[in-house]
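wait is this the right file?? whatever heres the structure
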């Protein structure tokens, strides 16, 4: 399709100027009518956040996303470009993407006066119309709005008071597009004043010179709710001009969380043997985040980012990959012990309360992993009799092995424990499957029993049963308070 190359050709094409917020509104309505996904790749917000964003766009509001870290706020803002047209005409060479039919800057007015309908035009794609800035205390008015450029004035022979001497900042350069500011409360108060003034009145002052800039911009922001409400760093006039306040949240279900992690984690490894990540292990990794968000020793105000299970899964796979390559195995299968090997990817992402700081991050994270293992274990083995496995340890059996032991070696050791390998069928693993897969399932059973305190485990002894004198063995020990028999 031929695109107009000059202002005259654009006029003949019957092009009509549309504001960016009207453009987003029309495209949103079209997507809704066609049943298209509004924000591809955003999972778990279909019934909460996305309808609220849609309402804000339909209302032509500037809006702010309030949420803890790792709640896809930035990704949502960047997905707004899907509501923009594929291409937009603007006066070629204009720094602020002036509408060919309704220019703003002095330079474009002068070019139109000189060239008329022969003034050349160019086109911007949707991605080019999105401008993002991370708010930091050192951001200046010149960064956001602009500043006078004495070199431009000297070269052009202009007075410093002339608009032709302005070096435009990020906000004017986002004209006819979307301007996003992340972590808005960290923006200095005087910069926030400049924002709300241009949002409402469309004029700013640069170095004391009044400049009228009725920009056509959709403004969107993100903030942490703690900063937004408690620290009060967003000035009241700016809050008043933000049309909608939308709260994001962490995934509500384990299924949504696993889908996000599967989408974001780097699991397709180059040079890796055949990789199989058991479903139960993915659930354990995801449950780590769910348990941490409920853990009283973890700071709730800081939150537990969705990046926690993503980086954890990547480290779990890397640990399994290291072992598989070292043992020359044809299949790479992570085990529950690999989750503990992934602790370096967890401890730095979990902010602790005072009690947690006293215990130490390693200790708290170990407890969280055990709780996550117990939660998933109950799902698969809630009513499954496992007393024969527990009894093997109560009869004096112990099991200790290296984290990097081969699958064949581990399979041989697990085979000695009565009934252990047969129980992996509840995980969808058959005894005749690859030893690496069976070993992973068997280790998960032992880890789950240890997490529920039906057997014990430590770094020195491995898996074992504590012996208590004068206690008879229970036929089917309970997870909460079981009895162990002692061998005399």
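ok assuming it is, sequence goes like this
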């Amino acid at each position: 399709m031929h695109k107009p190359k000059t202002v005259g050709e654009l006029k003949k094409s019957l092009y009509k100027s549309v504001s960016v917020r009207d453009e987003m509104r029309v495209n949103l309505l079209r997507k809704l009518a066609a049943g298209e996904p509004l924000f591809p790749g955003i999972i778990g917000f279909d019934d909460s956040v996305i309808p609220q964003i849609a309402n804000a766009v339909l209302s032509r509001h500037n809006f702010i996303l309030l949420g803890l870290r790792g709640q896809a706020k930035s990704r949502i803002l960047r997905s707004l470009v899907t509501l923009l047209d594929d291409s937009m005409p603007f006066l070629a060479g204009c720094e602020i993407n002036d509408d060919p039919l309704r220019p703003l800057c002095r330079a474009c007015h002068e070019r139109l006066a000189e060239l008329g309908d022969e003034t050349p035009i160019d086109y911007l794609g949707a991605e080019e119309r999105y401008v993002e800035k991370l708010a930091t205390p050192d951001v200046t008015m010149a960064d956001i709005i602009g500043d006078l450029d004495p070199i431009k004035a000297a070269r052009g022979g202009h007075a410093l008071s002339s608009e032709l001497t302005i070096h435009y900042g990020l906000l004017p350069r986002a004209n006819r597009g979307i301007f996003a500011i992340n972590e808005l409360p960290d923006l200095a108060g005087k910069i926030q004043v400049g924002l709300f003034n241009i949002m409402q009145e469309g004029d700013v002052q640069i170095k004391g010179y009044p400049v009228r800039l009725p920009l056509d911009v959709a403004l969107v922001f993100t903030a942490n709710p703690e900063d937004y409400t408690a620290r009060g760093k967003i000035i009241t006039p700016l809050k008043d001009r933000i049309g909608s306040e939308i709260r994001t949240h962490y995934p509500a279900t384990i299924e949504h969380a696993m889908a996000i992690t599967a989408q974001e984690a780097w699991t397709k490894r180059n040079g890796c043997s055949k990789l199989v990540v058991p479903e139960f292990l993915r659930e354990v990794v995801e449950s780590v985040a769910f348990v941490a968000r409920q853990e009283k020793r973890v700071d709730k105000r800081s939150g537990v980012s969705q990046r926690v299970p993503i980086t954890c899964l990547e480290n779990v796979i890397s640990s399994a990959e290291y072992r598989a390559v070292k043992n020359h195995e044809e299949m790479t299968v992570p085990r529950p012990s690999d989750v503990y090997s992934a602790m370096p990817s967890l401890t730095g992402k979990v902010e602790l309360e005072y009690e947690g700081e006293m215990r130490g991050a390693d200790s708290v994270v170990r407890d969280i992993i055990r709780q996550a293992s117990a939660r998933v274990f109950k799902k698969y083995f809630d009513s499954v009799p496992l007393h024969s496995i527990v009894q093997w340890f109560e009869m004096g059996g112990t099991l200790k092995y290296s984290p990097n032991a081969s699958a064949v070696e581990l399979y041989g050791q697990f085979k000695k424990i009565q009934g252990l390998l047969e129980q992996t069928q509840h995980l969808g693993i058959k005894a005749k499957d690859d030893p690496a897969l069976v070993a992973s399932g068997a280790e998960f059973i032992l880890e789950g029993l240890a997490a529920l305190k039906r057997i014990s485990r430590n770094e020195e002894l491995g898996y074992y049963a504590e012996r208590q004198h004068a206690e008879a063995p229970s036929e089917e020990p309970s997870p909460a308070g079981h009895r162990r028999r002692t061998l005399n």
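The chain has 21 helices and 15 strands. so i think its the right one actually
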